[in-house]
Specification:
alpha/beta, Rossmann fold, Alpha-Beta Plaits, 3 domains, six-stranded parallel β-sheet, 16 helices
Length: about 450
């Protein structure tokens, strides 16, 4: 596919890296010449320095011949205008990154009248994941995900003591026809492989035949912590705003601590039933004064990763039940896995995943669901052009960050091992870390001999 990425910031760069894996024809436009030069030198693709507001520039790159235009600069107005112009000039589908609360209140109007196919908001996405974790806590009896004949269940490892301390290689001898596709350990999701061992305190994700898995789940009580009634949020930016709004509508008592006095007045004016405090979130005495120890949940959502991690660690050490940190850089993955924070969310990964689901939705990715906002389970239709067909899974050299969880073939469901092969017409269930979601592009891209784009 021909894809124009309008904006070479953090999100634009992630999308470029990811979509190139699938051998798409990528063109990147950005007003910052240094960014454009860096992209061109790093990825050897077409780049244009220039203002995406300029219709002449969009004509120059031939936007009318593109399948997708992804407007992902840091300016809502620029993204809406460029996406709308791209559509008017003949681009098949356009997506705009839009972040302001004012625009989010009128997305239907924007999409309909500016002819934009989809709007993606990183702050709404991360808010949705935080809300889902704090309020819509999973019920094992309902399952996290069901699709035709398979189900994925979330389970505290202690509820199945037979598996604690056992390596993944022994798991299927304990629970036949079941596959562990994910482990959440100290707030970090990982894709398990044979050498990994299930530990006490892990949350494990199991995939198996739907009927058998739902019957198995009846052995356990609903997995639900205490209701989230009191939440402290550090940072009154857009994440803090959307989260405060959503949690207060749910009925939780929310305190937002924000260091910018002007922003505090703005939040107080816009948010009802939310306590907004002007202060430094790093001031432990302030947090104590505001009853940090009595909180059901703590969310560190400032614009600084290091600050969010330190604040989250402080809250966890003070005994807060649910602690969440917003972290935008992958460099901290190893550190966060050792800190014991309940959930670490990356808004850029969530945004890239949402955009890729839209792009790939027109091809072979049929459905998807997120695991703790860090990994994604996808259903993919397999056709005869794919390079993964007719090979034993052990020969596919799957990376550590992905696993094939199930194969639906006709009326048959296969929980695979290394000997199974993927055939044309199969529907495969794949679990992949969001930080490496570009791997899905390698699965769905055509075999090189059949790739007409090369």
């Amino acid at each position: 596919m021909k894809i124009a990425i309008l904006g070479a910031g953090k999100l634009g760069t992630i999308l470029t890296e990811t979509l190139l894996v699938g051998d798409n024809d990528i063109t990147v436009v950005d007003i910052n010449e240094k960014r454009v030069q860096h992209i061109a030198q790093t990825y050897d693709i077409l780049t244009y320095p220039g203002d995406i507001h300029r219709v002449g520039l969009l004509r120059e790159i031939g936007i009318g011949s593109f399948d997708f235009a992804l407007a992902v600069t840091g300016s809502d107005d620029a993204n809406i205008f460029a996406a709308s112009c791209a559509k008017a000039l003949g681009c098949k589908k356009v997506i705009a990154r839009v972040t302001s609360p004012e625009h989010m209140q009128q997305t239907d109007f924007i999409c309909q009248n500016f002819h934009i196919d989809a709007v993606v908001n990183p702050y709404v996405l991360i808010t949705g994941e935080i809300y889902r974790y704090l309020v819509e806590k999973y019920s094992l009896s309902n399952g996290v995900y069901t699709n035709k004949r398979i189900a994925m269940l979330e389970l505290d490892a202690e509820k199945e003591p037979r598996v604690v301390g056992k390596p993944i290689t022994e798991f299927r001898s304990i629970l036949p026809e079941t596959l562990v596709v994910g482990i959440c350990r100290r707030g970090q999701v990982m894709i398990p492989h044979g050498h990994d061992t299930i530990e006490a305190g892990d949350i494990i994700y199991l995939v198996g035949e739907k009927k058998a898995m739902l019957e198995y789940s009846k052995k356990f009580k609903r997995k639900r912590g205490r209701d989230t009634q009191k939440v402290m949020v550090i940072g009154g930016g857009r994440t803090g705003y959307f989260l405060g709004q959503k949690l207060s509508e749910y009925g939780a008592a929310v305190k937002i601590i924000e260091s910018n006095e002007k922003r505090c007045y703005e939040l107080s004016d816009k948010l009802r039933n939310v306590m907004v405090l002007h202060g430094n979130g790093n001031d432990i005495s302030l947090l104590e004064e505001e009853n940090l120890d009595d909180m059901d949940a703590f969310v560190a959502a400032t614009g600084f990763d290091e600050e969010n991690l330190l604040l989250a660690l402080t809250a966890k050490n003070r005994g807060v039940s649910d602690v969440i940190a917003k972290v935008s850089h992958e460099n901290y993955n190893d550190l966060t896995s050792q800190m014991g924070i309940d959930v670490v969310l990356n808004p850029m990964d969530l945004s890239a995943s949402a955009i890729l689901r839209i792009v790939n939705g027109s091809k072979r990715v049929l459905s998807s669901v997120l695991l703790q906002g860090q990994a994604e389970l996808l259903e993919i239709y397999v056709d005869e052009t794919m390079d993964i067909i007719n090979k034993p899974l052990r020969d596919l050299n799957l990376p550590d960050y992905a696993i094939i969880a199930a194969i639906n073939r006709g009326t048959k469901t296969i929980i695979p091992d290394g000997n199974d092969k993927i055939l044309p017409g199969d529907h495969i269930i794949v679990v992949c870390m969001l930080s490496h979601i570009g791997y899905i592009e390698t699965i769905i891209k055509p075999h090189e001999k059949l790739n007409i784009f090369k």
